[in-house]
From TrEMBL:
<comment type="function">
    <text>DNA ligase that catalyzes the formation of phosphodiester linkages between 5'-phosphoryl and 3'-hydroxyl groups in double-stranded DNA using NAD as a coenzyme and as the energy source for the reaction. It is essential for DNA replication and repair of damaged DNA.</text>
</comment>
<feature type="binding site">
    <location>
        <position position="299"/>
    </location>
    <ligand>
        <name>NAD(+)</name>
    </ligand>
</feature>
<feature type="active site" description="N6-AMP-lysine intermediate">
    <location>
        <position position="126"/>
    </location>
</feature>
<feature type="binding site">
    <location>
        <position position="124"/>
    </location>
    <ligand>
        <name>NAD(+)</name>
    </ligand>
</feature>
<protein>
    <recommendedName>
        <fullName>DNA ligase</fullName>
    </recommendedName>
</protein>
<feature type="binding site">
    <location>
        <position position="323"/>
    </location>
    <ligand>
        <name>NAD(+)</name>
    </ligand>
</feature>
<comment type="similarity">
    <text>Belongs to the NAD-dependent DNA ligase family. LigA subfamily.</text>
</comment>
<feature type="binding site">
    <location>
        <begin position="39"/>
        <end position="43"/>
    </location>
    <ligand>
        <name>NAD(+)</name>
    </ligand>
</feature>
<feature type="binding site">
    <location>
        <position position="183"/>
    </location>
    <ligand>
        <name>NAD(+)</name>
    </ligand>
</feature>
<feature type="binding site">
    <location>
        <begin position="88"/>
        <end position="89"/>
    </location>
    <ligand>
        <name>NAD(+)</name>
    </ligand>
</feature>
<feature type="binding site">
    <location>
        <position position="147"/>
    </location>
    <ligand>
        <name>NAD(+)</name>
    </ligand>
</feature>
């Protein structure tokens, strides 16, 4: 039934059902690393939830999932708080929506049309892994944690130390405390090999590289993580007691100087047309890349403008993920208990 045809009563009931369903799906995906449905199906359910909520704001729950990031972590790993929250990203799906994203920024910053020329973006492939927060104090890695519900994650410090391309110390000129954020992922080939190995040992197969990476990182025994071929790309700053770059591009360069791996395909684009060109070029390269991506993230390059724009709800105003069209997929929903 189309959303505009829903009666109040139906809308209220469906919102409550969808909230329960999405919570179950989140638990399976984030806490058990075992998704029950394809991402495209999950995204459609979430979009429907958000649209109903927008049309019937009177039924919006105080702790609505539309404002939430991930889910509260459960399980045996220690919990730890991020110094500043780890958020999600808004999505766009075509150039029109990308232009709307630019217009919202223009309005918020009250920019004149000619000032728009200075609004540059850094485009980065959106890696399909799980986000990680790395805290360095006096140049030493002291803690690594998963995103969790954005405020509290799981402590995976010992596990990340087994990653090959992670610097445990920063070489020079670092703030006293800094959070570096990125994505832990597993390559397509390593995922294939890992599942072959799992099959040989009669162990459960992972649904996709993202879940294999999450399942491998969130182990209680770091030795198991060590045996898994995990890699890392870094792309963001959380808390820092000192500014380390004036633009996102310079920030990425600094991370490279410190020995981190930054995705080599990142590029500065100056407008929606250049973003679309970049989008097309990444879509062409996608199947040949050794890792999974599900879109391109566009971030305002100027750190001053990022700070002026700040955040809204669960996402920064200064960035968006331009997602790829969903690949055709067959969906199988395992048994899901819905309590209404
Ligand atoms: P998201 O994954 O769409 O976007 C935010 C995330 O992108 C960030 O947290 C970060 O980890 C990641 N990212 C990758 N590359 C990045 C880069 N270069 N710069 C910045 N961030 C980058 O949104 P979300 O809220 O984290 O999660 C929703 C995703 O999880 C959707 O794709 C959804 O389909 C999936 N999901 C699926 C199920 C399921 O049952 N199949 C359940 C829950 C969530």
């Amino acid at each position: 039934i189309s959303i505009s045809e829903l009666s109040s009563e139906q809308a209220q009931k469906e919102l409550s059902q969808l909230a329960n369903l999405l919570k179950s799906l989140d638990h399976a995906y984030y806490n058990q690393d075992e998704p029950l449905v394809e991402d495209a199906t999950y995204d459609k359910l979430r979009q429907r939830y958000n649209k109903i909520e927008l049309l019937f704001p009177q039924f919006r729950q105080k702790d609505s999932i539309s404002q939430k990031v991930g889910i509260k972590p459960t399980g045996g790993l220690q919990k730890c708080k991020h110094l500043i929250p780890m958020l999600s990203l808004d999505n766009v799906f075509d150039i029109r929506e990308f232009e709307d994203f630019i217009k919202r920024i223009q309005r918020y910053l009250d920019l004149k049309p000619d000032e728009l020329d200075n609004l540059h973006f850094v485009a980065e492939p959106k890696i399909d892994g799980l986000s990680i927060n790395l805290t360095y104090k006096h140049g030493k890695l002291i803690q690594a944690s998963t995103r969790g519900d954005g405020t509290t994650g799981e402590d995976v410090t010992e596990n990340v130390k087994t990653l090959r391309n992670l610097p445990l110390t920063l070489p020079e000129n670092y703030p006293d405390t800094i959070e570096i954020r990125g994505e832990v992922y597993i390559s397509k080939q390593d995922f294939f090999n890992l599942n072959k190995e799992q099959e040989k040992n009669n162990k459960r197969l992972f649904a996709n590289p993202r879940n294999a990476a999450a399942g491998s990182l969130r182990q209680l025994d770091p030795e198991i993580t060590r045996s898994r071929p995990l890699s890392l790309f870094v792309y963001a700053q959380g808390y820092s007691d000192k500014s380390i770059a004036d633009t996102h591009e310079h920030f990425l360069e600094r991370l490279q100087q410190w020995g981190f791996t930054v995705n080599p395909l990142f590029k500065v684009v100056k407008n929606a047309r250049e973003a679309e060109e970049f989008q097309q070029s990444i879509i062409h390269q996608r199947s040949g890349l050794p890792y999974d991506i599900d879109g391109v993230v566009y971030k305002i390059n100027s750190v001053t403008l990022q700070n002026r724009l700040g955040f809204i709800g669960r996402s920064p105003r200064w960035a968006t993920a331009w997602k790829f069209p969903a690949e055709q997929a067959i969906t199988r929903i395992k048994k899901i208990e819905i309590q209404v």
